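Task: complex structure prediction.
Instruction: return C-alpha cells for all chains below.
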Amino acid sequence: MPEVAMSAFLQNVCAICLTALLISGGLCVYRIVIGPKAADRAVALDTLTSVFIGVICALCIMWKQTFYFDAVWILTLVGFLGSAVIAKYLEKGRVF
Amino acid sequence: MPSIIEIIVAVPMIVGTFLMVVASIGLLRFPDIFCRMHAAGKAGTLGVSLIILAAVFFFVPTSVGVVIRGLLAIAFQFLTTPAATHLLARASYITEYPLSERTAVDELKAYLPSQSDQTYGHE
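Output:
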C-alpha cells in the first residue's frame, strides 16, 4: 500500500478532534447514567455509537490504517438495530 | 503550511466534531426527551457523516474499498438514524413520557392517542 502523505498538521487535527469526541462521549455517558427513563438512555446510547464511529474514523486517519474501517458501517447497522429493538420493547412490552 | 489535501480532510473533520459536541451538549441540557432527540437526531447524523467523509477523503488516493464502505456507511447513517429517532419518539409519546412544562401546544394528541386511551387499538 503506498504511503499517504501526512504532516504534523493532520496529526494535531486528529488529536484535537479525538479530545473533543472524548468529551462528548463523556457527556453521553453522563446522560446514560442520570437519564430519568429508558428512552433517554436509548437516545444517549445512539449518540454514543455515533461518537464511537467518529473516534474510529479519527484513529484510522491518525494511524493510516484501513482495516478498522469495517467497524464503522457494522456499528452503523448494529446501532440502528439496538435503537429499533428498544423502541419496540418500550411501545409494546415485547420485542417480536 | 498544510497542503490542500490536508485542508480538505481537516475541514469536515473539525466541523463534524463540532456538531458531535453540540449534539452531546444538547443531549445533556434539553428538558425532555423530544428536545433531546431533536439535538441527537439532527446534529449527530450530520456530524458523524462529516467525520466519515473526512476519512473517505483521506483514503481516496490509496484504497477504493474504504471509499465504497465509507459512502455506504454515510448512506446507512442517513437512512437509519432518523428512523431510529422517530421510532423512539413515537414509543415514548405512546407510553406517556411527560412533556416539558414549557411545552406550549401538543398537536400530536389529536392523531396519536396515548396508551391510557382505550380508543387506540394496538393489536
